[in-house]
Amino acid sequence: MRDAFMAALTEQAQQDSRVNLIIADIGFKVVDDFVAKMPDQFLNVGIAEQAMIGVAAGMASLGKRPIAYSLGNFPTIRCLEQIRNDLCYHDLNVTVVSVGAGLAYGTLGYTHHAVEDIALMRALPNMKVYSPADALECRAVVELLPTTPGPKYIRLGKNREPRIHEVQPDLSAGAPVLVREGSDVTLMVVGPIVTQAIEAAQELAKQGISVRLLTCPVIKPLNITAIRDAATGTAGIVTLEEHTLMGGFGSAVLEALAVHGWRIPVLPLALDDAAASTVGSQEYLREQNGLATHSVISRIADFTASV
Amino acid sequence: MVSSAGASHIGSALSVIDIASVLYGRVANVAPDRVNDPDRDIILISKGHSASGIYAVLGNAGYFPLEWLDRYCVDGAPLGGHVTAHGIPGVEFSTGALGHALPFGVGIAIASKRDAHPRRVFVVLSDGECQEGSNWEAAMLASQHVLGNLTAIIDRNRLQILANTEEISSLEPFADKWLAFGWDVVEVDGHDHDALETAIAGAHDRPRVVIANTTKGKGVDFMENSVPWHTNTPNAEQASDAIAQLEALREGGSR
Ligand SMILES: Cc1ncc(C[n+]2csc(CCOP(=O)(O)OP(=O)(O)O)c2C)c(N)n1
Questions:
Q1: Which of chain B's residues have a Cβ under 8 Å away from the Cβ of A74?
Q2: Does the beta carbon of A47 sit less than 6 angstroms from any atom of ligand 1?
Q3: Does B233 reach chain A within 8 Å, measured CB to CB?
Q4: Cis peptide before A268 (omega within 30 of 0)
């Protein structure tokens, strides 16, 4: 997904000289092609994320379209106030990009787990939040950037995630994207953990539960009407994300349904409210958090039986 | 360890290992059987990504069973890819995001002064890390409070992830910057244990920074001063070559 992002961005930057890629010393080899093609649209500010956002804001104020890229929490939480005041308060056209969403950097430990970013970015005014599930969704998100004003946040996976979609989805309305038809329960997923959702849906089909599976790469602005409509005829919505339950995608869906007074049963599957206390890979840490495929299967089965 | 774990940062680990050996082994008032002793000195590793090197030093010094090293970054094992105080004896502070330990160290130094406690605080930083503003905020405060109990040791290997520090956001004149911030500055060869010991152990009445000139990937010819060895994982062949080179060095007595 990282490579897909960089390839799409490079094409865009070749057509639009306002696009400037700004990094804080992350992107070894990943940025090489961009730098070779457009050295004057590239800037490595050093290991200085707060400056990265401030500099991006300044450039955006003169009409540039900066893309501030780093890893994990470095481009978001490290410089949260710069994002809040310099970007969001001034509604500046800067895209913040983080590679390694969720538990992707599992063994590197809690400092490198990006598991609160959706909540924090979502809470900021003017900010748009995207979490693509595969390379095609990622490209579709990049293609939204030129026509979407103001600050934006893209939460990338790591790399080489399996491709989910046959064709590039149209994300212009922010609607969820159908992955698999089903009639009993609707499963809405953000990010690369969709691969587990697919396995779960296949297994649940064997158990006689028909899962309608969608991805929802546009988290803010949330198209709640499209989400409601997508769940029509099923017993309810299960959300799945690699993010803390508090303030994440599932939480966004619940808030929006409540605001509209739409009474649809929702089961939000997300990470526990705890810093990972054990060392382990992404798969291992998912297991520890009740997000392994077998847990997802049994939790969906229980939910479907109960509603 | 790094190879079988599929991990990175081997260059960063080899760069800092002499500093860590001297600090834990010769200078600081610390010992494996006194990890909770209130009178111990405090060592903070700000470059948390050098975990494999720091853990090798701690394991060999007896802070935890050496077998832990063989399970570095394994699911459910104690040791992960960044230094953590969660369950690892000898580690005082969890790091991984750069630019966090110097402010924490200033806090410890101020609190110790207020308690009239003689403990010393040692903070190990990397050089690229000094591009983070948080370090300079702490540096200013440290001299304001005349923290003679605080020593920063900087692993000055001149490389960060993408290139040389001087090509990205230059640190030089590095010693002058620290001087201007009111610090006592000493420069040494960061692989010379005696020189390191003298520089780190010496008394000072202001905060001291030891700029330790090092070689990233020290001791392994194909890793030395090589940008990719920040990120790359050695394969089995490279790992055994590297181990052979390091063992030859140890036998030669230069380490
Ligand atoms: C706040 C923050 N930003 C970025 C990173 C990613 N990162 C890990 S190591 C490193 C740079 C390493 O260079 P240096 O600080 O000189 O340490 P060395 O490994 O050379 O000793 C970076 C940018 C990080 N860990 N923390």
A1: 97
A2: yes
A3: no
A4: no
Task: Mention every residue, 6+ apart, whose C-beta is less than 8 A from residue B9.
Answer: B2, B49, B50, B51, B52, B81, B230
CATH number at residue B43: 3.40.50.970
Buried residues in A292-307 as b, exposed as e (16+ CB within 10 A): bbebbbebbbebbeee
Task: Answer yes or no: pTM beyond 0.80.
Answer: yes
Going by C-alpha positions, the residue among A270, A280, A291, A243 that lies closest to residue A109 is A280
Kindly determine whether residue B162 and residue A73, on different chains, have CB atoms separated by under 8 Å: no
**Quick one: CATH architecture of A2-155?**
3-Layer(aba) Sandwich (3.40)
- Cα(A217)–Cα(A188) distance, rounded to whole angstroms? 10
Domain membership flag for residue B84 = no
Same fold flag, A2-155 and A177-306: yes
B242 is in which domain, residue-wise? Answer: 10-50+97-252
CB distance B132–A48 less than 8 Å? yes
Please state the domain extents for chain A. Answer: 2-155, 177-306
Contact (Cβ atoms closer than 8 angstroms) between residue A37 and residue A12:
no
What is the distance between the alpha carbons of residues B205 and A82, in angstroms, rounded to a whole number?
Answer: 37
pLDDT of B255 reads 45
DSSP state of A56: H
Q: Would the CB of B15 count as within 6 Å of ligand 1?
A: yes
Number of domains chain B contains: 1
Report in angstroms the alpha-carbon separations of A108 from A5, A161, A174, A229.
23, 19, 33, 40
How many residues would you count in chain A?
A: 307
**Helix or strand holding residue B166 (H, E):** helix B165-168
Cα B192 to middle of ligand 1, angstroms: 24
pLDDT in tens, A138-184: 999 999 999 999 999 999 999 889 999 999 999 999 999 999 999 99
Q: Is the pLDDT of residue B244 over 50?
A: yes
Q: Is A291 helix (H, G, I), strand (E, B) or coil?
A: coil
| Block residue for tokens 């990719």 | B228
Rounded Cα–Cα distance for residues A282 and A67 (Å): 27
Q: Can you tell me the distance from the alpha carbon of B96 to that of B58, in angstroms, rounded to the nearest whole number?
A: 18
B9, B95, B126, B167: which to mutate for ligand 1, most atoms within 8 A of CB?
Answer: B126
B135 CB near ligand 1 (under 6 Å): no
Mind telling me how many Å the CA of B251 is from chain A's nearest CA?
A: 33
Architecture of domain A177-306: 3-Layer(aba) Sandwich (3.40)
Per-residue model confidence (pLDDT) at position B203: 92
